[in-house]
């Protein structure tokens, strides 16, 4: 059962579930659990998937519940000295 179409697009883009798992540093069963909805895709993995797919699958597609505009802005902002 495929309950997360965006991760399926990522798998097809990379070539296989195992290839996607290797490219983002997780085990294939983890990607399968994301695909079937058994486990949610961690927000911290979304940028890895976006990079691995060359932007074909964006963080916003994977986790629309996260405010990615704010996350991206915070990542781009230089850190303040303490």
**Broad shape:** globular
The name CATH uses for the topology is: 434 Repressor (Amino-terminal Domain)
Q: Give the second-level CATH assignment, the architecture.
A: Orthogonal Bundle
Helix content: 55-70%
Poorly predicted ranges: none
CATH fourth-tier homologous superfamily: lambda repressor-like DNA-binding domains
Walk me through the structure.
This protein has helices spanning 5-14, 17-24, 28-36, 46-52, 59-62, 68-76. By secondary structure, it is mostly helical. The protein has one domain (5-76): 434 Repressor (Amino-terminal Domain) (Orthogonal Bundle), CATH 1.10.260.40. Helix 1 packs across helix 2 and helix 2 packs across helix 3 (28-36). The longest helix has 10 residues, at 5-14. The termini are far apart.
In short:
Helices cover 57% and strands 0% of the residues. By secondary structure, the protein is mostly helical.
Question: How would the blueprint of this fold be written?
Answer:
Layout: H1 5-14, H2 17-24, H3 28-36, H4 46-52, H5 59-62, H6 68-76
Helix pairs in contact: 1-2, 2-3
Which features characterize this protein?
about 80 residues, mainly alpha, about 55% helix
């Amino acid at each position: 059962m495929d309950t997360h179409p965006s991760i399926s697009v990522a798998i097809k883009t990379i070539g296989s579930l195992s290839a996607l798992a290797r490219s983002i540093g997780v085990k294939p069963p983890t990607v399968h659990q994301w695909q079937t909805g058994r486990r949610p895709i961690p927000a911290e993995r979304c940028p890895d998937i976006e990079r691995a797919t060359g932007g074909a699958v964006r963080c916003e597609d994977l986790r629309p519940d996260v405010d990615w505009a704010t996350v991206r802005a915070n990542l781009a902002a230089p850190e303040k000295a303490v």
